[in-house]
Specification:
The chain has six helices and no strands. By secondary structure, it is mainly alpha-helical.
Length: 118
């Protein structure tokens, strides 16, 4: 499940390169939401790749989108974009620290099962 969310997030981020500025922003938000779900499911590599691709796309490859986000009248868009960029990173860090409870745990041995009982 985490692989499918991560791969679809990367694909959406790559597809966002070919669209006009308002549309690529919404596509990047969708990609970042998908990679946040992948990070919550204990994925790390694909969500980090999606965040890096989205940051590069917003900062360097689409200057019109960057100008649109930095305009004073679009402070809400900039806030949502910043939160969308930070959410996967926060999910990766919290999941790696074991704070979310959905991190990958080592398999139980038979001795552990017999000690605590069925």
């Amino acid at each position: 499940m985490r692989q499918s969310f991560g791969i679809s997030g990367v694909v959406l981020a790559i597809l966002g390169l070919s669209l006009a500025p308002p549309l690529n922003l919404f596509l990047l938000w969708g990609a970042l939401i998908l990679c946040t779900l992948a990070a919550l499911a204990a994925g790390r590599m694909l969500p980090a790749t999606t965040v890096a691709a989205a940051t590069i796309e917003l900062g360097f490859l689409s200057p019109l989108t960057l100008e649109m986000l930095l305009a004073r009248s679009n402070a809400g868009l900039a806030l949502v974009t910043a939160l969308a960029l930070l959410a996967p990173i926060a999910a990766i860090v919290l999941n790696a620290a074991g704070k979310l409870g959905c991190a990958v745990r080592p398999p139980e041995t038979y001795a552990d099962v017999f000690e605590r009982g069925w």
